[in-house]
Amino acid sequence: LRTSLCLQFKPHHIAAGAIFLAAKFLKVKLPSDGEKFWWQEFDVTPRQLE
């Protein structure tokens, strides 16, 4: 698989996207601790994940 994702996006954005897609595919709800959502740990926004 050849892709230019590593040139287009920051590594932590790619990692967050992979987690998001895996959770969506497996129908797993990702945790939040009330004040902070999982994607905030990667410094991304929900819009960037979509």
Write up what this structure looks like:
The chain is an all-alpha fold and 50 residues long. The protein has one domain (5-49). The protein contains three helices and no strands. The protein has helices at residues 5-8, 11-26, 46-49. The longest helix is centred in the middle third of the chain and has 16 residues, at 11-26. The radius of gyration is 12 Å and the shape is flat.
Summary keywords:
single chain, 50 residues, mainly alpha, 48% helix, flat, Cyclin-like domain-containing protein, Cyclin-like_sf, Cyclin/Ssn8
Which residue ranges are poorly predicted, with pLDDT under 50 across at least 5 consecutive positions? none
- Taken in chain order, the helices and strands follow as HHH
User: What is the general shape?
Assistant: flat
Largest beta-sheet details = none
As for the number of domains, it is: 1
Roughly how many Å is the radius of gyration?
A: 12 Å
> How does the helix and strand content classify structurally?
mainly alpha
> How many DSSP helices?
3
Query: What is the end-to-end distance?
Result: 22 Å
Bin the helical content. Answer: 40-55%
Report strand %: under 5%
Oligomer: single chain
Mean of pLDDT:
89
Q: How many strand elements? A: 0
